Amino acid sequence: MKRILTFLLAVGFSALIFAEDLTSPKKLDFQSVWARTGEISMNTTDDADVKCLKYSGYGDFCATYSQAFDVKPGEVYQMTGEFRNTGRGTSGLSVILRQGKNTHEWVYGSRTIYNETHPEGEFQKLTTKFIIPQNRNAIVPRIVGYGNGDNYQINFRNITIQKVGEIALLENAPQHVMENDSLKVTFDGQTAAFQVQDKRTGRVWKQATRPGLFYVKKSSLKDNKVTFTAINSKSVEDFTVEIALSKTAPELTVKLVGAPEMNLDQPISYPSAFESVPQDRIIIPINEGISFPVTEDAPGAGHLVAYGGHGICMGFWAQCEEEFIPAPNSDENAVNQLGEVRGKSGYLAILETSDDVRITTSRPDENTLLTTTLEWQGQKGKLGYDRVIRYVFFDKADVTTVVKRYRAYADSIGLVVPFTEKVKQNPALKEGFDRLIGSANFWYFGGNKIKLYKELQAEGVTKILSSSGGTPEEIRELNDMPGILTSQYDIYQDSMDPTKYEAVGRKPGDYGLWTSEAWERDELMTDKNGNWIRGWEVAQVDKTKPRIPCGVLCDVCAVPYERERVAKALQEKPYRARFIDTTTASSWRECYHPKHPCTRTESKNAKMELLGVLGREFNLVAGSETGHEASVPYCDFYEGMMSLGPYRVPDSGRNLLELWEEGNVPERTEKYQVGETYRMPLWELVYHDCTVSYWYWGDYNNKLPSLWVKRDLFNALYGVPPMYLFDGGTYPRFKDQIIASYKIAQPVSEKTGWHEMTAFRVLSKDRTVQQTEFANGIRVTANFGDNDCTLADGYVLKAKKVRVEENIK
Question: In sequence order, what DSSP letters do the residues of 127-170 get, joined into one string?
Answer without folding.
Answer: EEEEEPPTT--EEEEEEEEEEESS-EEEEEEEEEEEEEEE-PPP
